[in-house]
Amino acid sequence: MEITVKDLASLLNGTIEGDPDLRLTRPGKIEEGGAGVITFLGNAKYEPYLYTTSASAVLVNRNFQPKSPIQATLIRVDDVYACIALLLEKFGAPAPKSSGIHPQSIIHPSAKLGQNISIGPLTIIEEDVEIGDNVYIEAQVFIGRGSKIGADCRFLVGVKILHECSIGDRCLFHPGVVIGADGFGFAPQEDGSYKKINQIGTVVVEDDVEIGANSTVDRASIGSTILRRGVKLDNLVQIAHNVEIGENTVIAAQVGIAGSSKIGKNCQIGGQVAVAGHLKVADGTRVQGKSGVASNVKEPNQALFGYPAIDYHQFIRAHTIFKQLPELAKRLHELEKRLSKNED
Amino acid sequence: MEITVKDLASLLNGTIEGDPDLRLTRPGKIEEGGAGVITFLGNAKYEPYLYTTSASAVLVNRNFQPKSPIQATLIRVDDVYACIALLLEKFGAPAPKSSGIHPQSIIHPSAKLGQNISIGPLTIIEEDVEIGDNVYIEAQVFIGRGSKIGADCRFLVGVKILHECSIGDRCLFHPGVVIGADGFGFAPQEDGSYKKINQIGTVVVEDDVEIGANSTVDRASIGSTILRRGVKLDNLVQIAHNVEIGENTVIAAQVGIAGSSKIGKNCQIGGQVAVAGHLKVADGTRVQGKSGVASNVKEPNQALFGYPAIDYHQFIRAHTIFKQLPELAKRLHELEKRLSKNED
Amino acid sequence: MEITVKDLASLLNGTIEGDPDLRLTRPGKIEEGGAGVITFLGNAKYEPYLYTTSASAVLVNRNFQPKSPIQATLIRVDDVYACIALLLEKFGAPAPKSSGIHPQSIIHPSAKLGQNISIGPLTIIEEDVEIGDNVYIEAQVFIGRGSKIGADCRFLVGVKILHECSIGDRCLFHPGVVIGADGFGFAPQEDGSYKKINQIGTVVVEDDVEIGANSTVDRASIGSTILRRGVKLDNLVQIAHNVEIGENTVIAAQVGIAGSSKIGKNCQIGGQVAVAGHLKVADGTRVQGKSGVASNVKEPNQALFGYPAIDYHQFIRAHTIFKQLPELAKRLHELEKRLSKNED
């Protein structure tokens, strides 16, 4: 794949500062550069590299003001990140082609397979599974009895979808994902032991959901655990039974959402966050990484931080004083001494 | 499966308020209801749904006092959660039946298999493994050489039990569980590198243990990592080498127990908790989710919270003041000014 | 394996206090002891067991001063932990022998395999993979197209290495490890949905790296995610796209390193730590378990604690006061009352 600066700028609706005829052969990092490399300035932390990069061309935002001279040709665009997505699509590996059904897969005769399906070796499809068109299933995958898969999904190596789950269209599950394991439910017994509560519900994943490697989404005890359209989960995320995640909510790695909590639409949940069970979190909530949400979030579009999580700015201010606590305690002690002296 | 209110109430030792002849066809959620649905009121947060649910019947606790009229038939029972467990057993899918040994499993001739065993496709059983009666092993499982498995266990798809581990009766391991990987042990060398310390111990899991999807239990360096009878681990839990978890201790998702720590009996450990290495945690300890236990817990039946974890109520009180720290600092500053003024 | 105290002491360059002719048959724990057992005193917490152990011999540090009489024979050595590593090597199971290529593995004809390679059953090696000499690959492993594996590696059951990754010599990956899944990158769209940013980079793992069970290392969006020589990752660790981990850095279980962060050499990162994205962490940094690093760490060899992480000792002092906050607030209130009274 090769493209000129001029053609790329036209594609991205960008304006050129520099040589429009340069040939671009691959995307690269701004700090590594190289001839033929098209790179980008997204995060302002990387701006110093802009003035020294040996890349041929750099995508920058339309209104970017350089502080020093730049060797590379600039392409100014409305939204650098949106353009990177396009760029990586152009230069990325082509989507995998259907290679048909591998002879060493194990597919139950009752399974209904759509058109143009690819199934890798050592993959198991159980009875009464239904799979839509253009689905690409890699090696060593497992899809349990009665599960329904939409069209254009990709399940990478070792994905495990247990029985009776429902997956929408265009979902992408990374290696080791487990969908539909039992929720964690036990009834305490008088002797201190626990009796398992059967988990007879299911998991519903709507369209355009991506789930990262080794993440787990448990089946409901009764009813469904639900990931709404456009949800994105990173790696090693835990979604407990009866949870519902709203449309286009993005959840970073190692987050845990405890049982029966409902997360709204368009939320952004940072890495290692925990949300306690039976909570409602309003639409548009942003939770700073590593925070713990321990109560309902009623007002939408708030930013939260800390454990238990409070308002983002309130946390920052409180933590600033936290660091000075020993000094504060000392000042308090001084005051007490002075006041006692005065009172004498 | 269908049962009348009368028959179900009799089964659960409950009393009926409403129509004893209604036919119940499936368990459901109180907020979703539906004709034929038997549901329950467990958590008080869901009480508002009780007055509007279209479910046919609802399990409530014996002494529950409704605040408004209720359409549904009530069945009053001693312990709603215990009854749900029974209910889901009745309505749940029947326990999987032995389907025998799948011809595409790979079983070493030296393995000793009990009666009525089911082994799924692409599962591997290595040399000298012993498996008790009525064990149900799904697809793509691995059981390493010399491991001993008790009776009535269920290992779901992709479980990996490495060599020389010992598993009791009636254990249930969910997909992707790894038992017996090496503990994390290294001897620092003079050049800054690390030399691996061989992990020659094993893992012992006693009876009635359930382990959630993608959780990991490491083998001991020397001796055994031990999960005692009735332990329940949720998903993505990490149990390090030489840890011992006491009887009937319940551990929620994404918890990590560091090397050589001993957790007592009947503990309840919330999600994402960490316990540092070489600690002893007394019986009956309850640790609030996301807390970090950094020292021994000597007295039993305490509740802990925070990081490093302290007494639950002490933490709640301290965190209340934490949120007000900026105001506190301001008041301190005011006092200093006033006092200085007075002193002048 | 059997060795006399005399021979072992000579091997470890140790001095003997007690019977040099005792025969040692296996390593064991100091609290369990037993005839023929060679054990060790590493962590001072276990010293009480030293005076009661029934083990035959105990390794102690050269300068250790016992507080009571000891029955067991002592072997004094320069570094107990280094000696344990040696000891467990001597007594441990022999390294697994090559068993050749299992007939039920699936190996693409274009793959290039070195000498003396072992490949287990149901393992898949895709096209254009290259594997060095003496590599030991267990069952149910997956190595994707174009990946290059050095010599003397061990990949245990169910390891998944996706396409175009590069692994050095003597690496050990535990069960369920996923190398090269897509990084978590999305461009927000105007309608609130997210467009996937293709991840066209790769993962480079240098020599002598060990990765724990079910850990995940994502491929870079552009360029490479890099684990330098001698890095050790424990279980359930998440390494995001474009991260770089420096030489001989050790990372405990359930840690998450967010995208594009660079961790220096010889760092020690405790369990459940999070490092935010786009940060630089200096060489020799030690981060206490469960801390959250939220800003660059510029000075090497610092110890950090808390969330957001601050200097270790500053955190300890601040946390000491944190616990007393309710009392502090009360004292402040008292002062205000007293001062107001004085001012009247």
Overall spatial form of chain A:
flat
N→C terminal distance of chain A: 87 Å
Mean pLDDT of chain A: 94
CATH fold field value of the largest domain in chain A:
UDP N-Acetylglucosamine Acyltransferase, domain 1
Beta strand count of chain A: 39
Name given to the CATH homologous superfamily of the largest domain in chain A: Hexapeptide repeat proteins
Largest interface: A-B, 64 and 66 residues
List the total number of helices of chain A.
5
Give unreliable regions of chain A as ranges: none
3D structure, described in words:
- The structure is a homotrimer of 344-residue chains.
- Chain A has 344 residues and is of the alpha/beta class.
- The first copy, chain A, has 2 domains: 3-91, Udp-n-acetylmuramoylalanyl-d-glutamate--2,6- Diaminopimelate Ligase, Chain: A, domain 1 (3-Layer(aba) Sandwich), CATH 3.40.1390.10; 106-315, UDP N-Acetylglucosamine Acyltransferase, domain 1 (3 Solenoid).
- Chain A contains 5 helices and 39 strands.
- In chain A, the strands form 6 sheets. An 11-stranded mixed beta sheet of chain A has the order 10-13-16-19-24-27-30-33-36-38-39.
- In chain A, strand 21 (186-188) and strand 22 (194-196) form a beta hairpin.
- The first copy, chain A, is flat and about 95 Å long.
- The mean pLDDT of chain A is 94.
- Chains in contact: A-B, A-C, B-C.
- Chains A, B, C: This is UDP-3-O-acylglucosamine N-acyltransferase.
- Chains A, B, C: Residues 21-89 form the UDP-3-O-[3-hydroxymyristoyl] glucosamine N-acyltransferase non-repeat region domain.
- Chains A, B, C: Catalyzes the N-acylation of UDP-3-O-acylglucosamine using 3-hydroxyacyl-ACP as the acyl donor. Is involved in the biosynthesis of lipid A, a phosphorylated glycolipid that anchors the lipopolysaccharide to the outer membrane of the cell.
- Chains A, B, C: Pathway: Bacterial outer membrane biogenesis; LPS lipid A biosynthesis.
